[in-house]
């Protein structure tokens, strides 16, 4: 296995210039070899993380290795990555065809954005009423005119579910869209979506049991009368959990969810790097107080913990604004303190007169009885969606009963990193009567689609004091924030858009918190 970052081999120069040729020579010599390029990275950690993700599934497998893998880069204007082979498909893979953003269904299953298709185009019809399903959002986007769909998976038996729905207004009856397709050689000829579903805008699912023997699932499409179309694809282990039960989350989210990083002209820094020492504890200045408290959660039915920061000079004779700060999927109520030193940053900013004294609450966003970040933390993703009620009904009332707080929306903020960023957008924008300041640092795939986040741009513009979106230009999840930014820009909703030079990491979150805190409560 030989790998490089694509920027190491760009233009046929650098240390990786001959990597592909070396692997070709090894193959000719009869040595089983794989070549891999990490898209849009150099000699850096992101290249090595991705390489490990590609390398590990190849180990100890008694089967031929796949051909050379070269993921597309932004220079090739690729839309989606070549999905990685991984044993994590045992938890199920779901693709929402045509969608630019991830989608979490009512059962907590995560559907990846459109990827894996060869050829064709996509379209979204967000306002269309869909029948014969409870998952309406899934059928409001489609990929059409494609030649094939390819997804790398370990050899074995699978259940493939193909989701169809005729939503093109030009099709008015049966026989007007007829095409054929093959799933691992199993042929479906003269397939008529209208006829199968029983009408327009009606969902239909075709389930196909298959056995994969060459390391990838292949679906081929052939046009007949009109182009082929599809709304979603599920790849589930045969005899495994049902579609509704599967969580769909792999052990490493970037490898499964990330897209090639394609930057637009306005995907650039809005601020310079923070000054040296901005996150270092200083002597000779007042410091705030950080304490761990417990509260009774009616949502969970147990006693839970959260950290609370009170600023230097805190007194009950004064009312303070409150920032609720949410962690990522691998963290807990201490992550912002441990990884980002938020309390030290605030102490320094308050001492310099650059931000107002505020209370900061870092709760645990994993709403289940065992809320520790243990084992496969990605399997706990559905518990993050349940935090909305815990936040509104348990956390905020507890803080308001124990601390001297202003209780109007203009003095309440919600922000977070990664999964916490998705929570902040999902919950904050849904409750504009509660939060007037919202911050998202490196939003994760739990984030709702932009049109669902902000269905009424005028109301959001009127209610919000600040909407902050940020991500690093080395973060494979940047496309999530990019999609929200472009929607907000199109709809004229004011917001901060900051794309700096970092990845999906604490440096990104510390730097953005430094500037975000300075904009709050003014």
Characterize the structure shown.
- The protein is of the alpha/beta class and 522 residues long.
- It is built from 14 helices and 25 strands.
- It has helices at 6-9, 19-28, 45-55, 193-197, 253-257, 335-340, 342-351, 381-385, 387-402, 419-430, 450-453, 457-463, 478-491, 506-519; strands at residues 2-5, 35-38, 69-70, 93-96, 103-104, 110-111, 117-118, 121-124, 141-144, 148-152, 156-165, 178-183, 186-192, 203-212, 216-225, 229-230, 232-237, 289-297, 302-310, 322-326, 359-363, 412-417, 437-441, 466-472, 496-500.
- Strands 18-19-21-20-22-23-24-25 form an eight-stranded mixed sheet, with helices on both faces.
- Strand 22 (412-417), helix 10 (419-430) and strand 23 (437-441) form a beta-alpha-beta unit.
- The chain is globular, with a radius of gyration of 25 Å.
- Mean pLDDT is 86; it is low at 11-16, 64-90 and 240-256.
